Amino acid sequence: MKPPAEPNPFAGARAALSSKRAEIVSKVDELGTHDPAEVASLGFGKRVGDATLYAVERMTDAYRARTIYATVADIDHALERIEAGAYGRCVACAGPIPVERLRAVPWAALCVPCSAKPVRSKLVR
Ligand SMILES: [Zn+2]
Questions:
Q1: Residues with CB under 5 A from ligand 1 (ion)
Q2: Which DSSP state fits 10?
């Protein structure tokens, strides 16, 4: 069944968020394709530094994966706000988020002044 025409000016945002979400999730899949055999082979005939470098890369991947999952959560929240008719409004002060900002970051939950405030600590554990 086709939904009725969307009255809000962010009608394109849902598609943009959905495709971005799919793109991000596929990136997470790429990060998860490290072959365990590759790790095991690092101990033989290679400099110790290679294994260390690999470990650092894995940590970086884990960090990136976490960042990516946080972005997916942000996108999901943005989709929820679209459903609730609250998309395009700052979740902190309810002020409008500039359209240019939403074009650059469709899942932006905060307006520019609010995003400049150090309130992101709850996302970092
Ligand atoms: Zn705000």
A1: 90, 92-93, 95, 111, 114
A2: T
Query: Ligand 1 center to residue 100 CA distance, Å?
Result: 15
* 14, pLDDT greater than 70: yes
Q: State pLDDT tens for residues 56-82.
A: 888 888 888 888 888 999 999 999 999
Three-state DSSP class for residue 119: coil
Q: How far is the CA of 34 from the centre of ligand 1 (A)?
A: 40
Q: Domains, the chain, ranges and CATH?
A: 11-123 (1.20.120.910)
Distance between Cα 54 and ligand 1 center (Å): 41
In angstroms, the Cα distances linking 30 to 15, 34, 35, 54 are 23, 8, 11, 16
Q: Which residues lie across from 102 on neighbouring strands?
A: none
